Amino acid sequence: MEGPRAPTNTEYTDIVKFLDTNLRQNSTWSVADEYPTVFTEHNLHNFRIIKTPDEILSHAVIKPLLTKTRRAVFKVGCIGSVITNEKHRNSGLSQNVIQECLNEIKKQDCDFAILWSNLYDFYRKLGFELAGSEVSLLIDKPLNVKNNFKILDSNKVDPQALYRIYSQHSVGAVRNLDDFTKYLTIPNSRLYTAWTS
Ligand SMILES: CC(C)(COP(=O)(O)OP(=O)(O)OC[C@H]1O[C@@H](n2cnc3c(N)ncnc32)[C@H](O)[C@@H]1OP(=O)(O)O)[C@@H](O)C(=O)NCCC(=O)NCCS
Question: How is domain 2-124 classified at the architecture level of CATH?
Answer without folding.
Answer: 3-Layer(aba) Sandwich (3.40)
